[in-house]
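Researcher: Next sequence.
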Amino acid sequence: MIPYGTFRRYMLTAIINVIIFYIIWEFFFWLLPESNYWPSIAWAIAWIIGSFCAHWTHRKWTFDSKRDPRWTVPASMAVYTIGLVGSTACYYIGSVPMGLDVRVVFLLNNSLWGFLNYLGQREIAFRNPSPKMGEEGRNSALD
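Model: Next structure:
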């Protein structure tokens, strides 16, 4: 069994999230004009929708978080908002000024920002609270 909170478990869960994200992106890429910044808009829309799905799958399957959703939802969305801004900018730069194929940029960008999201989710949103005095054996990051 892969311990909760590990990068391998994150990657297994991410496969589901990336498929959902890609389907949403393809839908909006098809719906919106293909020129200029519109593929980046499709990326941003898919990122926003996919973030909600990703929060719940990572909460349950990656980190098995016992933290209150009143903490994990806003904390995750803060991490995802930083990712939204950064990844959309990177997507735009890769697909418009650099002229790379939009699907190649999707793959590269998703890989980079997926790793950064893992770090943010692990260290901020789903990190177990520090144990109280005398409870050092409980609430470890790998529980």
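Model: The chain has four helices and no strands. The helical segments are 7-31, 38-62, 69-95, 102-125.
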